[in-house]
Amino acid sequence: MPSTLTPQQAWGLLEAGNERFTQGTVNHPHQDADRRTALENSQSPHAVIFGCADSRLAAEIIFDVGLGDVFVIRTAGQVMDDAVLGSLQFAVEEINVPLIIILGHDNCGAVTAAVDAMETAVMPRSFMRSLVERILPSVMAAKSKGVSDVNGTVKEHTNQTVHRVVETSSAVAEAVAEGKTAVMAVTYSLSDGSVHIGDTLGPVRA
């Protein structure tokens, strides 16, 4: 059955989990055999986390959640493609997830490659080029605001992705307009494990 949480309540659970993580008081909830059995035939996650594929950005760990709590999508540099958009549509339309988190992090390798490509006018080869091409609009948006460092660009890229998701996915846009779902930019600090809110669309505080 779908989650009964509001976007605000969903973020409250994730925020509390991240606080436990940063303080070293994690609960490791919903990771036992009973939880696994309960989820055999259905799921009702309270958030989608669309984040970078970086090995240091394990969503379930940094938000101290367990099986069935979050619907996770990951690509390098949280770059969108048809598979990502289809996954978001499924989460919103089929399981009515009330919150979409766009999760970036400092010192992101994909964003660093895009910043370097802009500065040197040299594009990486093969499929890395496709990643960089999809991040370059965010690099240009950051530069237009006087931001050129990687971590500042990560924040801008995360914010830009919030707006692109809503502009690109009619399913997400409809859910946001109806107040069913919120889309929130969040950046993660590798050094202390904390998360910081950026742009937000929909019924949840920013």
Automatic annotation (TrEMBL):
Keywords: Lyase, Zinc. It catalyses: hydrogencarbonate + H(+) = CO2 + H2O. Pfam families: Pro_CA (PF00484). PANTHER family: CARBONIC ANHYDRASE, CARBONIC ANHYDRASE 2. Belongs to the beta-class carbonic anhydrase family. Catalyzes the reversible hydration of carbon dioxide to form bicarbonate. This is Carbonic anhydrase. It comes from Yaniella flava. The lineage of its organism: Bacteria, Bacillati, Actinomycetota, Actinomycetes, Micrococcales.
